[in-house]
Amino acid sequence: SAHRSASAHRFVVPSHRLRTGWVYLNATISARFFLDYRWRGLFRGPERLIDLAQCGFIDLRSNVIFNGAPGTGKTHLAIALGREACRRGYRVRFFTACGLANLYREAREERQILRLEKQIRKHDLIIVDELGYIPLDRHGAEHLFGFFSQCYEQVSLILTTNLPFADWPQIFAADERMTGALLDRITHHVHIVAIEGDSFRLKTAKPLKASRKGGPPTEPS
Predict the structure, then answer these.
(1) Given its phi and psi angles, is residue 121 left (phi above 0), alpha (psi -120 to 50 degrees) or beta?
(2) At what angle do helices 138-151 and 113-121 cross, to 10 degrees?
(3) Residue 202 CB: number of other CB atoms within 10 A?
């Protein structure tokens, strides 16, 4: 089948962040990148990423959550899996959490919620990026709760977040009951990848600042 035609142990890495919207990507590089480059040491067991890149979790309608501090590569990894899923023939869509909440708000105002939900169910995998960076108001929280409920055991999700689960109520209008029900759905079938370490952007900025001051640039650790 198209889903299983690719060679084993291949992964993908985007060179930039993508804007909210439809994503159809096809570039791939070998999983060796993850073993040899800056990802090393940020999480335990890079073999887990190689396993996720086989996209079996999509067939099982399972979810993936990348959790870590800002700048540690969560979005890049999420888009990497999305690219590989596209390459294998899966239908993939990408949103930021705020963009998705706004899309639901617009659909509600235009009385197009049912149409939006029908479009969502047509996909195999949906990436929701930056969950937790900006708190949602009550309407936004309810819209995302509805979205996650629609996807439960129907559409696989990849989420990126900088917050531990205990802090998720602050994302969803401080509603602990709603958050608990949402987490129950999301984590029923889930692969959690915790990323540890400092921001790549800060590491890159340090040698750049040193160079501008006339000092010798330092190599990123």
Answers:
(1) alpha
(2) 40
(3) 12
How many CB atoms are closer than 10 A to CB 26? Answer: 9
| Per-residue pLDDT at 9 exceeds 50 | no
Query: What tokens does 168 get?
Result: 């998720």
Amino acid identity of 23? V
The beta strand positions in the chain, using DSSP E, are: 10-11, 21-22, 29-30, 63-68, 92-96, 125-131, 156-161, 190-195
Which residue carries 């999480």 as its tokens? 43
Task: Determine the residue type at 57.
Answer: F
Cα(203)–Cα(187) distance, rounded to whole angstroms? Answer: 32
Q: What is the pLDDT of residues 118-160, one digit of tens each?
A: 999 999 999 999 999 988 999 999 999 999 999 999 999 999 9
Q: Rounded to whole angstroms, how far apart are CA atoms 59 and 108?
A: 31
Of 91, 88, 84, nearest to 34 (Cα)?
Answer: 84
